[in-house]
């Protein structure tokens, strides 16, 4: 299932260390030497320096706000790079984001005082190349020094940059622990909520770029697609591949039989188990991964979302897959429609702390105050969703958050104020969830770090309810 990693940037660049080795050993502490293949520095042209400059811009944009990296990718100077250098710059910034805590520890051991952000950025990007992309050290060091020379703010520090990076090359990274990659306040919450062992798995999951997961229409030939996409078939039916890059170029994309969707994100719609001819409502639908699943099962689907721009992507996804849904662009609370449905899915807006494997910036963007605000929104949306379920119908509530306020606490409060609903205990094996995800209440609490040997999955809270009155 392994395929050679895409080469980004200049020669010999990113050796993508993937994440999804079949037998992932828990490599809890890192202590190894940077790689240093003997090649001449002169072979690395100036454009390599520009790609590293862009990597620093992307990193700082992501640290500033959640959508920062993608916004910068669409602008100059990132936009002006060759496709290979853009891919390199992105891989470098993502690697730095994933392992920022470890990188800062490695640097902290060699710096008496932390330099200003421009110098620190050059150092972080250089260490990310050595630690994550396995760039030859001499190339990471020489391009860092060249970058420093370009700017008045960093030029005085070029000898320091050179000495620090050469020291790391000589002595190795030292021991670092993945817990360093978690913001302290989140690590403290997760330790309190899930315990020490789970925290280790959550931290380890920061280190690796996840595999690509794919959902397949029930009518398609799953085994043939798995072969074409060099994928394994996970329990539940998700295809998992080490492929990366532009999925539009992958086999059978235009046929519309598959779409990219994390293995955990595919579980909520599976739990609803809608049947052909049933009616289903997806109340926070865009960009539509779960709506596609409902429609592909043969249900008659209504997709509601407040964001017209996100619904544009949903419509494109439906067009490509040749599926159908009635689409309504409106805040769910304002939707005046008295239909009730056999199945209602509420994938509510949330802090998204469970998605850091794919979006490492989610860890930096989350704020405690946002969790409280989002919990209020979820509370309101849950009450709207409840009204839309027929008696005897089902409701799935899910969030890609690891925070109890958005999951378990929300569900306890909902069941207290909506006595006409009861939990239907999930059966993890039948929907492709790890067995350890099942809570005593019958809900699923999926943590990145579960299924580590299969390449892990995103964090989710998922509850299946039935309306009894
Ligand atoms: C977690 S995302 C949904 C992802 C989607 N279910 C999927 O699988 O592709 C949450 C969505 O809720 C939408 N949203 C936020 N507040 C909303 C509201 N009050 N009413 C309807 N949609 C809302 C957002 O626009 C966003 O698209």
Overview features:
about 475 residues; alpha/beta; N-utilizing Substance Protein B Homolog, Chain A; Rossmann fold; 2 domains; 8-stranded mixed beta sheet; 4-stranded antiparallel beta sheet; 16 helices; about 15% strand; globular; disordered N terminus; binds S-adenosylmethionine
What does the model show?
41% of the residues lie in helices and 14% in strands. α5 (117-133) packs antiparallel against α6 (137-150). Strands 5, 6, 7, 8, 9, 10, 11 and 13 form an 8-stranded mixed beta sheet that branches. A 4-stranded antiparallel beta sheet has the order 2-3-1-4, covered by helices on one side. Mean pLDDT is 91; it is low at 1-27 and 37-45. The protein has helices at residues 46-64, 68-73, 83-98, 100-108, 117-133, 137-150, 158-171, 184-204, 222-228, 267-272, 289-296, 308-321, 361-365, 368-387, 408-417, 428-431; strands spanning 212-216, 231-233, 239-241, 258-260, 279-282, 300-305, 326-329, 341-347, 389-399, 421-423, 444-446, 448-451, 460-467. The protein has 469 residues and is of the alpha/beta class. The protein has 2 domains: 41-180, Orthogonal Bundle (N-utilizing Substance Protein B Homolog, Chain A); 262-467, 3-Layer(aba) Sandwich (Rossmann fold). S-adenosylmethionine binds at residues 265, 284-290, 304-307, 310, 331-333, 347, 349, 381. Residues 13-23 have a biased composition (Polar residues). Residues 24-35 have a biased composition (Basic residues). Keywords: Methyltransferase, RNA-binding, S-adenosyl-L-methionine, Transferase.
């Amino acid at each position: 299932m392994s395929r050679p990693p895409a080469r980004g940037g200049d020669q010999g660049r990113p050796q993508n260390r993937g994440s999804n080795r079949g037998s992932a050993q828990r490599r809890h502490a890192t202590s190894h030497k940077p790689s240093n293949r003997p090649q001449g520095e002169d072979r690395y042209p100036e454009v390599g320096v520009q790609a590293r400059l862009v990597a620093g811009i992307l990193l700082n944009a992501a640290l500033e706000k959640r959508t920062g990296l993608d916004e910068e990718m669409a602008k100059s100077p990132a936009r002006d790079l060759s496709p290979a250098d853009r891919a390199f710059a992105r891989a470098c910034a993502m690697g730095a984001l994933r392992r920022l805590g470890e990188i800062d520890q490695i640097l902290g051991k060699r710096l008496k005082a932390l330099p200003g952000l421009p110098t620190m950025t050059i150092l972080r990007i250089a260490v990310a190349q050595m630690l994550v992309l396995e760039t030859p050290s001499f190339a990471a060091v020489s391009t860092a020094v060249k970058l420093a020379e370009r700017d008045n703010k960093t030029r005085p520090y070029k000898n320091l940059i050179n000495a620090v990076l050469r020291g790391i090359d000589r002595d190795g990274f030292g021991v670092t622990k993945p817990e360093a990659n978690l913001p302290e306040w989140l690590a403290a919450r997760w330790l309190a909520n899930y315990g020490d062992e789970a925290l280790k798995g959550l931290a380890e999951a920061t280190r690796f770029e996840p595999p690509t997961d794919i959902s397949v229409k029930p009518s398609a030939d799953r085994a043939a697609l798995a072969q074409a996409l060099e994928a394994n078939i996970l329990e539940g039916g998700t295809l998992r591949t080490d492929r990366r890059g532009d999925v539009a170029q992958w086999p059978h994309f235009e046929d519309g039989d598959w779409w990219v969707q994390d293995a955990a994100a595919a579980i909520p719609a599976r739990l609803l188990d809608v049947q052909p001819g049933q009616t289903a409502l997806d109340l926070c639908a865009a960009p539509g991964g779960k709506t596609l699943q409902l429609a592909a099962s043969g249900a008659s689907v209504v997709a509601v979302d407040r964001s017209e721009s996100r619904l544009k992507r949903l419509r494109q996804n439906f067009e490509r897959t040749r599926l159908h849904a009635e689409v309504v662009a409106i805040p769910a609370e304002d939707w005046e429609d008295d239909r009730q449905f056999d199945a209602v899915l509420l994938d509510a807006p949330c802090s998204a702390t469970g998605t850091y494997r794919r979006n490492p910036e989610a860890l930096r963007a989350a704020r405690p105050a946002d969790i409280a605000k989002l919990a209020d929104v979820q509370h309101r949306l849950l009450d709207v969703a409840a009204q839309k379920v027929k008696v005897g119908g089902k409701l799935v509530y899910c969030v890609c958050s690891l925070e109890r306020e958005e999951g378990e606490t929300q569900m306890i409060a909902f069941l207290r104020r909506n006595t006409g609903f009861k939990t239907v205990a999930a059966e993890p094996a039948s929907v492709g969830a790890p067995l350890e995800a099942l809570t005593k209440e019958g809900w699923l609490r999926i943590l990145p770090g579960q299924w580590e040997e299969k390449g892990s999955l995103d964090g989710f809270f998922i509850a299946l309810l039935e309306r009894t009155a």
